[in-house]
Amino acid sequence: MVRLLSDIFIFGLVLLLIYLIKNNILSISVAVALFTYKTNIMTNFMDNISLLLDEVKNFNVSTDRVFAIIEKKEFVEEKFSHGHLKKVNGNFEFKNVSFAYDNYKVIDNMSFQINSGETVAFVGKSGAGKSTIFNLLGKIYDVNKGKILIEGVDINTLDEDSIRGNITIISQNPYIFNMSIKDNFRLVKENITEEEIIESLKLSCLYDFVKSLPEGLDTIIGEGGTNLSGGQRQRLAIARALVQETKIILFDEATSALDNETQRDIQTAIDNLKGKYTILIIAHRLSTIKNADRILLIENGQVQAEGKHQELLKKSSTYKKLYESEIVENK
Ligand code: ADP
């Protein structure tokens, strides 16, 4: 279309110039000069039209994506109820819970109970459903059958604040905002003091690192600033959880290889939380398992065995195999 317009324009211009020369309005030399100059005009004109068409195309793609989000086509709609629990102690229970992603059953009549202040590790093969348990507890998905109870109350009867306000999920790669360290804390607690930040950074074994940065707590971290390693991100997320004081902390241990020191620091950070919080850990490493009060082995959508590390080694051949395969991997 742009080319056709350009040809029509040139043809029209030639006719106009001939007409002007014939009527002695323009001399031949001026007409030639004008015709030469038209090349510049046309190039700009065509470039601009092409740019405009490109922009229109991009605009269409972007609006489609934005509207898909606005109209909630991209995400499952979250449904909360109105019951409110202000502060919880950290007791909860899965009671005959079943759950499937579309038609793919992952949790099958699962039951277990967690007591306030316990540190419990979930182990099992990859794909066994450990992360799904976290997603159900955080009500990112709803159970198909059975109940999840927090302090004896069905989470389906609770409002968003009662669930999300009492549970922190620390994922394998927590999101860190592109702001200063201090502002990352202010997002979870508006009036936080510098002392509180330092205290929680010390407990999460990150203070020495922050202190070594030239701008300390004012260092910009995240996409545009100092990039933190996976282990540092998780420790910062632990520090934020400490500030929020949510009673239940779900911790998905990073699967990526961490060096021994980072691993030890994360372990110390979790140990510092022990007893004061109910901590659930998806454990990918033996060091975490050994310090847990209880280990639940997840297999075939159920809790196949539970107990302390030594107990499970004796009573579950699956656990023993998992343990031995990790020893081989770590050699
Ligand atoms: P684990 O944490 O034990 O590795 P997950 O809970 O992540 O296991 O996954 C359990 C099973 O559910 C896996 O087979 C996984 O592929 C499947 N799954 C996980 N998330 C989804 C999802 N959003 N949609 C469909 N299937 C999923």
Structural notes for this entry:
This protein has 331 residues and is an alpha/beta fold. The chain folds into 2 domains: 2-70, no CATH class; 92-330, P-loop containing nucleotide triphosphate hydrolases (Rossmann fold), CATH 3.40.50. Helices cover 47% and strands 18% of the residues. It contains 12 helices and 10 strands. It has helices at residues 2-22, 28-70, 130-137, 160-164, 181-186, 194-203, 207-212, 230-244, 260-273, 286-291, 309-315, 317-330, and strands at 92-101, 104-114, 119-123, 145-150, 153-154, 167-170, 248-252, 278-282, 294-299, 302-307. The strands form 2 sheets. It has a 6-stranded mixed sheet with strand order 6-7-8-3-9-10, sandwiched between helices. The protein has a 4-stranded antiparallel sheet with strand order 2-1-4-5, covered by helices on one side. β7 (248-252), α9 (260-273) and β8 form a beta-alpha-beta unit. The radius of gyration is 31 Å and the shape is elongated. The model has no long low-confidence stretch (mean pLDDT 86). Bound molecules: adenosine-5'-diphosphate. Residues 101, 104, 106, 124, 126-132 line the site of adenosine-5'-diphosphate.
List keywords for this structure.
binds adenosine-5'-diphosphate; Rossmann fold; 331 residues; 2 domains; 12 helices; elongated; single chain; 6-stranded mixed β-sheet; 4-stranded antiparallel β-sheet; alpha/beta
